[in-house]
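pinging the channel bc i need a second pair of eyes. not urgent but kinda urgent?? the chain im working w is below, pasted from the shared doc
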Amino acid sequence: QVQLVESGGGLVQPGGSLRLSCAASGSSINAMAWHRQAPGKERELVAAIAIGGRTKYVDSVKGRFTISRDNAKNTVHLQMNSLKPEDTAVYYCNLGFFVGGYYSAGDRWGQGTQVTVSS
């Protein structure tokens, strides 16, 4: 049974930082990604990282967020800097794969962690 355990969410003021972490257990190595879903909006890909370290980001977070991974521990992190109220959402960890340079989400998701950016 594959389990994804997320941590690091919370309440921060605009301009603050958070570091999200996700540990995958019971699975072989995969591409990993962070998605988010805000109230009234569809879930969107935020950042993805391949086994070899290639990364993809949604335009709205480029230059502010950094995704990284530790293959030995099968974990993925999302360093979130210069946070904005628009970043408020539930963030989900996912195991998937890259094909043709694009990330394809698998059906394995974490429970989600709430990130709230507010003054």
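so The chain has a mean pLDDT of 94. and The longest strand covers residues 89-99. — does that match what u expected or am i reading it wrong
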